[in-house]
Amino acid sequence: MTDPMSVLAMTGATTIVAAMATSMWESARGGVAALFRRRGDDEATAIAVQLDGDAHLVAGEDDTEGVREELIRPWARRLAALLREHPEAADELRRVVEEVAAGLPRTEQHWTQNVSAHSGGTAFGAQGPGSSVHIHRHATPDGADPGDNAPAGGASGDGSSV
Q1: Disulfide-capable partner of 55 in 18, 20, 105, 162 (CB 3.0 to 4.6 Å)?
Q2: By CB neighbour count within 10 A (0-12 exposed, 13-18 middle, 19+ buried), where does 101 fall?
């Protein structure tokens, strides 16, 4: 997830899934279905059905946070694919995210994420609306993995916002 559209897709997915089984659900559902209407009414209907099924899973499980965590990645993929096809949808997705996030109960706005990079890799993490993108790089001069998760060269979050 290196480009801004992928970060936006992840932020959107995180927010949409957090809204499942909350008072903001209908707003989230309607906003996402409207986004997918760009692919036609049949696609929007199919997405609405998928959203309803996933929200039903969240509402019916004792481990709602575990179910939500499992649903984020598939929704991020769906949103990223839509944004690749229709980059003009980015502003609308941002509006949906901001509206939904503003109405979520405080307990639904708290996420924890651990991101690390190893052996010269780069890791990107983003959460929630207005996310800061944190970039972590890990490398050694000889390419060896020193066995810790500390960012190399003092690289840390760049503070850029989505």
Answers
A1: 20
A2: buried
Reference 80, options 27, 13, 129; nearest CA is 13
Whether the predicted model's global pTM rises above the 0.70 cut:
no
DSSP string, the chain: --SHHHHHHHHHHHHHHHHTTSTTHHHHHHHHHHHHGGG-HHHHHHHHHHHHHHHHHHHH-S-HHHHHHHHHHHHHHHHHHHHHH-GGGHHHHHHHHHHHHHHS-GGGG---------TT-EEEE--STTPBPEEEE---TTS---SS-PPGGG------B-
- N-to-C CA span, the chain: 13
